[in-house]
Design a protein that fits this description.
Residues 1-33 have a biased composition (Basic and acidic residues). With 964 residues, this protein is an alpha+beta fold. The radius of gyration is 33 Å and the shape is globular. Helices cover 17% and strands 37% of the residues.
């Protein structure tokens, strides 16, 4: 089983485990109409259920507990250690009890229970897509999260243990969940679909059914319902709203219906504004809706209705409560609470009379307000006075508020003191870098903020907001840890002190108007190179100006005609001088001549094309595991290649990690003083995953592991100075995740994958017992016979090897048709494989070596229909029907003049064989070829009539490409 298969199996196992609720636990949760009880209640009733219940963590837990880091089980090579950041668009919930100040918030696809008292996190992992909504039961025992991705999930968590007790799979397959809510008794869960079909479902999550109690489809004209709420006094009533429409629901006996009372500017001849949130009144059948115009819409039942009939509500009036837009509307005890765009929080009584307000916090627009489950003290000493004429003590619960600028504040109502719990990056976080000698990690975002964290103590060491340049794109420390370079989207550069983040010399260096994408220091910290979206490389040199060191402009070169993928400094082993290389989407590896570049110039030493069809994505210096110095590159075709650092010759090609998208960035882990010096590892990221790879690379899939880190895309990664942690920046999700490495787990996984050739046999279709392996053996033995003369009568010399010159024929016989350059790479890979040790060339190859060569060099996926379509769109012309065609003569000319040129004889031989006109090796004249091929060649003609691909084969290749 491959690593990818094992990962899928583990995922399936976790899904099955989470979707099954233990019968004993459900008896503890479910108590007829009383709803969900706390696990501490009714223990005597449950004691007879057996030891399994008594041992259940969910059953025995009685309070919030964050598992200490040292006690956490580490079974995977990558263990999520800490989540930096917050999704400021979602609410923050207070889980505070008498002993701990705990909050719940969302960080990408992870729910974070943060214990501010002990500065610890409990990370709730289960979603593969960004979490879009969350809620908690009134007693804060049960937490619910949902996402909006493919195969969306709704997960109910036990807040006391952090264990998922129920998972609803694909309950809204059209597009996930946009809003959810728990009833006051915690028994029922309401979910609202986010897809084209706006479906509202009511679930009894404590039973085993995978179907909702009732559901109803909403009309698309009502828009996306971004909030839903149960009536606290009657769980059969709900309210939801979009930005334009409020909906009221009634349900009983498995039937759910809704009403959509009209409300517009014309209803009361005043500006309504967009709708923000709705609540039920705590003391009547009324409901209230807040708007962006500072109004409150009051809903009430139309007439005195019969008690058996559902309540029908209509808008009775609009109350102009304030001038500022209301962003939050909620309840606490006997108060109606609002939060607005000016950061003010106001408390009203049931008649919307202002009782008190908080406006001295200088806050940003309020996103959420969540009150503690702990009731306020009955002793009113210390509470501030309200703003009424009676000036009574204003006794309320402590609460937590969050803002749209990623700030979370706890307010002690008795002391009237705000306490900032979190202040994170409110805009995309693209940049992360680790200090080379200390446990520090720096993070930079588009808000212009850099924060440096001590990732062992989980504390902010220093921070700075850069003005006027914002949108930090990349940052990097120099190898000595003295400087931190910052690159901006404006093309500006700043080099600051790594400890204080203050600039010592010129504040801003501007040599480009294009966004900086890569920054790298030389090993001696004497040079700083920057690559930008203008496909240019800029070089700065550190020099002395009197007693001060400054960074001087050395030169700039527009060295690529497509975007630069990576930028790297190295060391010339012959003279110990720095080397600078850049890698572009134009498939060129460029090395710069630093020694001969004068003032205001940057010369190119060499420019080599290292790929034919693949696009290189990144590069890194290979650690000294061999006598030679190598450069390791990755490409979009799931291949990794080793290039000789001096000659740029491709010396090895291996099948790289294949986890849905190609590797986009790599970093070699520092060598550990305690471990074997030949035991090295590499961290990498793909489009949405972070992984770890055992070195040396050889194509064994069991030596690699990856898991989702940022489902909306990961921008970059950084490795700690001791190689124990990897940090990934999520870009648009405004988060950085810290991953603790468990290398022994990865080694165990590799060992379980099999020794020697077993992992490679399993990569062959059918394995070692399959038809492909038997064909390989037969072709291999045939080559041996042919080299000893098929017709000889002499005793044959038994050998396990064949000449290297036979490899191309063997590859083609197996259906793999490499280009001439690929064949040369194969020859060089084998030929020079032992040259550094023996100074001799290898001229033959055995079957096992050939199998590895075949597996590592063959395409990761077949030719898909889409690739053929793209080729015809580039080379052909569209006719009146929009079908792309290529002129026959033009196609023949392209094959003979572009790429690896084919001679006219080769061309004739190929076409006659493909068209079945003559046996293999036959030929025809050009005039005969013109008669065989149509004047206009379509994609269907080429794929079906000439190449012989069936439609089924093309679809299969296309699916395989998606799987990889």
């Amino acid at each position: 089983m491959s690593t990818a298969d094992k990962t899928d199996a583990e995922t399936d196992g976790s899904r099955e485990q989470k979707s099954t609720v233990d019968n004993h636990m459900k008896k503890a949760l479910h108590n007829d109409d009383e709803g969900v009880q706390e696990a501490g209640e009714g223990r005597s009733e449950l004691s007879s259920l057996g030891e399994n219940v008594a041992d259940s963590q969910v059953y025995t837990a009685t309070s919030l507990s964050v598992v200490p880091k040292e006690n956490r089980t580490k079974t995977h090579p990558l263990v999520l250690d800490w989540a930096y950041g917050i999704n400021q668009t979602l609410p923050v919930l207070s889980l505070q009890d008498e002993d701990r100040l705990v909050i719940l918030y969302i960080c990408a696809h992870i729910a974070v229970m943060y214990d501010h008292t002990s500065n610890a996190q409990h990370l709730l992992q289960g979603h593969c897509s960004p979490i879009t909504c969350l809620c908690a039961s009134e007693d804060r025992r049960w937490l619910v999260t949902a996402d909006m991705g493919r195969e969306s999930l709704v997960i109910i968590w036990d807040a006391y243990t952090g264990i998922p007790v129920r998972t609803l799979f694909d309950c809204h397959p059209e597009g996930g969940v946009s809003a959810l809510a728990l009833s006051k008794d915690s028994k029922y869960l309401a979910t609202v679909g986010a897809g084209a079909v706006k479906r509202v479902c009511i679930w009894d999550w404590t039973d085993e059914s995978d179907s909702p109690q009732c559901q109803v489809d909403l009309s698309p004209k009502y828009g996306c319902q971004n909030q839903i709420l149960f009536n606290p006094s009657d769980s059969t009533q709900l309210v939801s709203n979009s930005s334009t429409q409020v909906l009221f629901y009634n349900w009983e006996r498995g039937h759910l219906e809704y009403s959509a009372p009209e409300i517009t500017d014309k209803t009361f001849n005043m500006v309504l504004g967009s709708l923000s949130q709705s609540i039920f009144h705590y003391d009547s059948v009324q409901a209230l809706t807040a708007t962006s115009a500072g109004n409150i819409v009051l809903w009430d039942k139309q007439t005195e209705s019969v008690s058996s009939q559902p309540i029908v509500r209509k808008a009775m009036k609009i109350v102009p409560l304030q001038k500022e837009a209301i962003t939050v509307l909620t309840l606490t005890d006997s108060f109606i609470v609002t939060g607005d765009v000016n950061g003010q929080i106001k408390f009203y009584d049931g008649n919307l009379k202002l009782i008190n307000f908080y406006n001295e916090f200088s806050m940003d627009p309020i996103r959420s307000i969540s009150f503690s489950k702990e009731k306020p003290s009955t002793i009113s000493l210390g509470y501030p006075k309200d703003c009424t004429l009676d000036a009574k003590p204003f006794v309320i619960r402590n609460f937590v508020l969050s803002t749209t600028c990623a700030t979370v504040v706890h307010v002690n109502a008795q002391r009237h003191v705000p306490q900032t719990l979190l202040k994170e990056h409110p805009e995309p976080l693209e940049a992360v870098a680790c200090h080379p000698k200390q446990p520090l990690v720096a993070m930079g975002s588009h808000s212009g903020t850099i924060k440096v964290w001590d990732y062992e103590c989980k504390e902010v060491v220093c921070s700075r907001v850069f003005q006027p340049h914002k949108q930090i794109q990349c940052i990097t420390y120099d190898p000595q840890g003295f400087y931190l370079a910052v690159g901006f989207a404006s093309g500006a550069l700043q080099i600051v002190d790594a400890c204080t983040l203050q600039s010592e010399g010129k504040e801003c260096l501007q040599y480009s108007q294009d966004s900086i994408t890569h920054l790298t220091f030389s090993q001696d910290s004497g040079y700083l190179a920057a690559a930008d979206t203008g496909k240019s490389v800029t070089l700065l040199r550190r020099c002395k100006a009197g007693t001060q060191e400054i960074w001087k402009y050395q030169g700039r070169h527009h060295s690529h005609y497509k975007p630069i993928q990576d930028l790297l400094f190295g060391v010339d082993l012959d003279n110990n001088q720095p080397r600078l290389l850049s890698l572009g989407m134009d498939r060129r590896l460029v090395e710069y001549d630093l020694q001969n570049s004068g003032d205001n110039e940057l010369l190119i030493l060499s420019s080599d094309r290292i790929e034919q069809s693949a696009v290189p994505t990144c590069m890194v210096w290979y650690p000294p595991l061999t006598p030679e110095n190598f450069l390791l590159t990755a490409s979009d075709l799931y291949k990794m290649k080793l290039f000789n650092a001096t000659s740029k010759m491709c010396r090895k090609t291996v099948f790289g990690p294949s986890y849905g998208s190609p590797v986009k960035r790599m970093a070699i882990l520092p060598a550990s003083n305690d471990d074997d010096p030949n035991s090295r590892y590499m961290a990498y990221i793909t489009q949405d995953k972070v992984g770890i790879q055992i070195l040396p690379v050889d194509g064994n899939p069991h030596k690699s592991f990856a898991m989702i880190c940022h489902s909306t895309g990961v921008s970059t990664l950084a490795v700690s100075y001791d190689g124990r942690n990897v940090f990934t920046a999520g870009g648009q999700d405004c988060t950085v995740l810290s991953w603790e490495l468990n290398l022994s787990s990865l080694e165990a996984s590799a060992a379980l994958g099999g020794k020697d050739m077993l992992p490679f046999y399993n990569l062959l279709e059918g394995g070692r017992d399959g038809q492909l392996f038997r064909e390989m053996e037969e072709y291999f033995y045939y080559c041996q016979l042919q080299n000893q003369d098929l017709n000889t009568m002499e005793t044959r010399l038994v050998s396990t090897r064949i000449p290297l010159a036979d490899v191309p024929f063997l590859m083609r016989a197996l259906g793999f048709y490499p280009t001439e350059q690929e064949l040369e790479d194969m020859q060089n890979e084998v030929k020079f494989s032992r040259y550094a040790e023996t100074r001799n060339y290898v001229t033959d190859i055995d079957l096992e070596e050939f199998i590895k060569l075949y597996i590592n060099h063959r395409p990761a996926s077949g030719i898909s229909r889409q690739e053929l379509c793209n080729a015809f769109e580039v080379l052909g012309r569209a006719d009146e029907d929009g079908t792309y065609t290529i002129d026959r003569d033009e196609l023949l000319e392209l094959l003979q003049a572009r790429g690896e040129h084919m001679t006219e004889e080769d061309l004739a031989e190929c076409f006659t064989t493909l068209l079945g006109i003559s046996a293999e090796g036959g030929s025809c004249t050009e005039s005969q070829l013109d008669g065989l091929l149509p004047t206009k060649i379509t994609m269907r003609t080429l794929s079906t009539d000439i190449l012989g691909f069936s439609a089924a084969t093309q679809e299969l290749h296309q699916e395989h490409a998606h799987d990889v």
